[in-house]
Amino acid sequence: MATKKTSRIDAMKHSARITQQGLTLVELMVSLVLASLITLAAVGLYTVGISSYRTVDAGQELQDNGRFALEIIGQAARQAGYENYPEGYGLRWTDTYATNTSLFPSVRGANNAKVASVTSVSDDGTNDNGGYNSSDTLAFRFHGASLQSDRTKADGSMIDCQGVAQTAPLLSNDLSDVALSLFWVKVDSTGEPSLQCISRGDPASPSRNTQPIIKGVESFQVMYGIDVNANSVPEKWVSANEVTDWTQVSAVRVGFVLRGAPGSSQGYQGASATASENKLYPLGATFTGSSTEAALVFTPPADGRLRRTFNATFTLRNPQN
To answer: What is the pLDDT of residue 242?
Structure first.
């Protein structure tokens, strides 16, 4: 009897095992739903992570580009108006471009402007000739510095916005012999608006050319501090088309809007904000104040790009006359 009872129990266990070998349709559907929810959550977290990484990376790139651009412009501003007259070098330069600031302004620019002819030695842009998004042009001129042993070779202490070392003036009555750092905005070969640098190139064979410094510059704005009282302190700030005497310019304020690559912003920044909250101020909202110049306020399109504004004020070190 014990053997039959044991056999019956074993049969019941075997039958139970057989009944547990599959899932019901309801259990299968529940499993699929839970798996789908977990997958969707994982994909969502991955997407958010990738988007956040892209935004952080774009923000860092914009920060680096903005600092680099301000450094290049600041260096050019510090050199503006520098004149190299070392008697011992035999380089006393009496060219009229050194003394006549109407021909050789150490700082000059144009409002809402572009450079129509890059190779022209006198084209610094013309007021209202159609700058990209009403961007401005800004030109600084200065003397380079030569080796005492060879006046045709630069000593490396004075470089232009392209990083090319410039010599002291070598020619007579030739504006192309004056070192140049000219900034403007142009759409480059990649289709991006870029802050460009125009220089005279190799001083041994001057030939103006333009090179992009940073890409993604949607607006480049410049204001000039006018020193009316000759005390080296700006009494007022004006646009290029309001400057009547460039020798009175004692400081410049520059600002620009940089944009990242498409999709660099996690959703369009400010999409739910009011129109006024979406506005960007290249020169700073406080500095812009109640100015009526339209270009000082930039309203970006809803294109999913991250944007940043950068601005700085540079005091000119060298006299402008």
So the answer is: 94
